């Protein structure tokens, strides 16, 4: 073996032993229903390598990839100082408004890190029906959402700034707000920002799309 020892190989457990372990209370699957104020969307770890021009590569991820956390089958591991466990999430009801919090910041004992990954998302027609169970889908006639506000964080975690993109419902135009400055912005430019918090409005059947995106 090389200096430092050999890796420990754990043989697979026999089916009988595995079935016996699943009978223990600590291995039992539990279902808990809880309310939420917002949905936290986890970003994949950003790569640390650079491209051929020695510039940091800014990764991109589709919105529906990070929404997969709530499809009822994707498992997420959680660790505490006592135990490790897996969780699966699924939506049981769709409210008139949804708030997404894109988890850009992670904090350890020394500093706060920011993930610069760009989330690619459409401005309109985000259908969340597939994130509901089949029996719950029947109770929801409207499952499509349109973006109405987008909060962006620019810069480093400790010294960054915020911008807000807001939809004017009466005209269907988007505006960017930063401090006291208000400017027009094209919907296509909103998707290029480091979105941090988003507010989505459920579309009702009699509503028309006025956003022009």
TrEMBL record:
<dbReference type="Pfam" id="PF00443">
    <property type="entry name" value="UCH"/>
</dbReference>
<dbReference type="GO" id="GO:0004843">
    <property type="term" value="F:cysteine-type deubiquitinase activity"/>
</dbReference>
<protein>
    <recommendedName>
        <fullName>ubiquitinyl hydrolase 1</fullName>
        <ecNumber>3.4.19.12</ecNumber>
    </recommendedName>
</protein>
<feature type="domain" description="USP">
    <location>
        <begin position="1"/>
        <end position="203"/>
    </location>
</feature>
<dbReference type="InterPro" id="IPR001394">
    <property type="entry name" value="Peptidase_C19_UCH"/>
</dbReference>
<dbReference type="InterPro" id="IPR038765">
    <property type="entry name" value="Papain-like_cys_pep_sf"/>
</dbReference>
<dbReference type="GO" id="GO:0016579">
    <property type="term" value="P:protein deubiquitination"/>
</dbReference>
<dbReference type="InterPro" id="IPR050185">
    <property type="entry name" value="Ub_carboxyl-term_hydrolase"/>
</dbReference>
<keyword id="KW-0378">Hydrolase</keyword>
<dbReference type="InterPro" id="IPR028889">
    <property type="entry name" value="USP"/>
</dbReference>
């Amino acid at each position: 073996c090389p200096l430092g020892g050999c890796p420990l190989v754990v043989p697979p457990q026999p089916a009988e032993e595995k079935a016996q372990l699943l009978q223990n209370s600590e291995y039992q699957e539990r279902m808990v229903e809880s309310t939420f104020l917002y949905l936290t969307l986890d970003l994949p770890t950003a790569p640390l390598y650079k491209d051929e021009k020695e510039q940091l590569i800014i990764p991109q991820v589709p919105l529906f990839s990070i929404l997969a956390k709530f499809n009822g089958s994707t498992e997420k591991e959680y660790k505490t100082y006592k135990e490790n466990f897996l969780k699966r999430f699924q939506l049981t009801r769709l409210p008139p408004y949804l708030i997404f919090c894109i988890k850009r910041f992670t904090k350890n004992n020394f500093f706060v890190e920011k993930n610069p990954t760009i989330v690619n998302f459409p401005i309109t027609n985000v259908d969340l029906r597939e994130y509901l169970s089949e029996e719950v889908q029947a109770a929801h006639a409207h499952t499509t959402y349109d973006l109405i506000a987008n909060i962006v964080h620019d810069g480093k975690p400790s010294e960054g700034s915020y911008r807000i993109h807001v939809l004017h419902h009466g005209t269907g135009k988007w505006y960017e707000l930063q401090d006291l400055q208000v400017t027009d912005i094209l919907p296509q430019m909103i998707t290029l920002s480091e979105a941090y918090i988003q507010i989505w409005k459920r579309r009702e059947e009699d509503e028309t799309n006025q956003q022009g995106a």
